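G., the chain you wanted modeled:
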Amino acid sequence: MPDKQPIYILPESVERTIGRDAQRNNILAAKLVSDAVKTTLGPKGMDKMLVSSVGDITVTNDGVTILEEMEIEHPAAKMMVEIAKTQESEVGDGTTTAVMLAGKLLENAEKLLDMKIHPTVITKGYNLAAVKAKEFLNEVAVEVGLDKKDDLKAIAMTAMTGKGAESVKEKFAGIIVDAIAQIEDKGSVDLGNIKIEKNKSNGVEDTELIKGIVIDKERVSIDMPVKVMNARIALISESLEIKNLEGDAKISVSDPSQLQNFLDREEMILKQMVEKIRRSNANVIFCQKGIDDMVQYYLAKSRIYACRRVAKSDMENLARATGGKIVSNLNDLTESELGKAQIVEEIKQGDEAMTYIRGCENPKALTILVHGGSEHVIDEMERAIRDGLGDVSAVIKSKKIVAGAGAVEIEVARRLRKFANSLGGREQLAVQEFANALEFIPTTLAENAGLDPIDVLTELKSRHDNGEKNAGINIFTNKVEDSFRAGIIEPMKIKTQAISSATEVAVMILRIDDVLASKSGKPKNSGMPNMADYE
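Predicted structure as tokens:
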């Protein structure tokens, strides 16, 4: 009988991991991502310093920023980064919670897989638990509106705690709540109306809310007015220069008069540009591209304030704020296309000059100008403010808040365990592991603050069993107390979104039992995943 020949259906460049190996590999990758961010959770969480290949430094404890900067390669780990991005875009905060929850759900699922429970049973149990958890969140949530300014400030402060903004969190919370109150429109909030501008001067305590737009540009000529009252603003997306010819062009000149005519013609075209602007009655120009020196000179003579190379996003903000239209052809510029503002002025702070546009047509156009001594500090302050804005706007939209400091997780976990006891099949075990995963949040909060997580968890459970549904761990006093009274409040939306995202990714990863990875070059043996260098 002839020897059996092996049959190859995949090329050599494809590496295949099957069954439990594939599951273990993916679960370990997800757990490593969770471990990478877990030390940043809570008021006493630590920061990460991320240095890029070109030497750029980022110091942050913002979950999504860390994961984006880490350049993760493992496919399962990339799925974890996706949930952080979703959490950021949907709520603006809670990214670390979502990633940690997904990692813990997968870690707990591994115990069940070792007990020979089928992944389909686990995923069914997790989905049941996620639906119930959101129901329980709704039951324990408290309604709040824009009139409860103190609650909204507490929410903003909770969001910013641990972001290095502790010393100024009250001031920042006031700025955030005032900004949201101004742009709120019948329960909807468009955060696109709030522009965050950074200025490296003074200290973070000088951060201010400006009712208008601030752009990081100065006037192009010192002969232009520093301040323009009753501004009529032209927004031009084309360059105010003579277009260069594409390719090489040669002009033969036989006598000096021809050269002079050529130069005169160029000057006349530039003069005509300025004349078109003057005819439109504009006294301020924001140009997305360059402005020729000659045009600058004639604009200054006409007492017109001009900024060049303004970013497209700033142009759109200006159009929204001033009611102007962005014009791509000077021939189309008329008075009806101009935007209006009460004051446009250049203000110098530190080494930088900025242009302030105040008293805009649209009162919902605001700028938060963040000051600070170094770029790293300003960047982290900006992230803190964005988290605060995200949290407060989430509350305005959903009108529901829950107790922070791990209180709501303990309460939902307690109710989930009761629900698990009512189930008959093996799904009961998956629901119990889901409840255990929720307790990972308060346990980590305590651990990051240097407390004993087992003692804290035991006390929290006992207080909740006695009916104290808002009992959480106040990291500043190291005591278990009522989170609402301590002002530790979070939007319900953070929790529901984190549970949805974490469950979805955990279920998806658990259902994978075969990984086919195409490789460039020689295939390697499949080992444990290395997030930094997964080949």
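The first strand starts at residue 14 and ends at 18.

Shout if anything looks off.
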